[in-house]
Amino acid sequence: MAHRAEQQYFVLKLVEGEEGEEEIAFLDVGKDEELGQLVGMAVYTTPDGEAQREDLNRYRGALMIDSASHEELLDAVQRAMPTSVFVDGKKVAGSVFIRMLKEELGIPIRTPRLIRWPQDRPG
Asked: Is 115 among the domain residues?
């Protein structure tokens, strides 16, 4: 596989159940008339900071900040497809965050290529 990424990430996690099962928390960032429910995700580059404290105080529930591997984050964002990822409180498009993770993991990023459709020619 790819080289190991050096950037370490931490994520807002929800702690549920009697056994304290942890899962990455997704945020309700509103609704869009055309897109429907908009989902966000909070990611941090350090385990403690102003953004982390603000998020823990803002959102209700059994929450914690915990480390997350690049693979865990990539899996989560590809499943939930958040429109926004808040990295240390700064809003980044979900698709941009996916690209960042892939680049850090050394996963090749497919570059779209142009397609030429046949022209209808008068005959």
From this structure: no
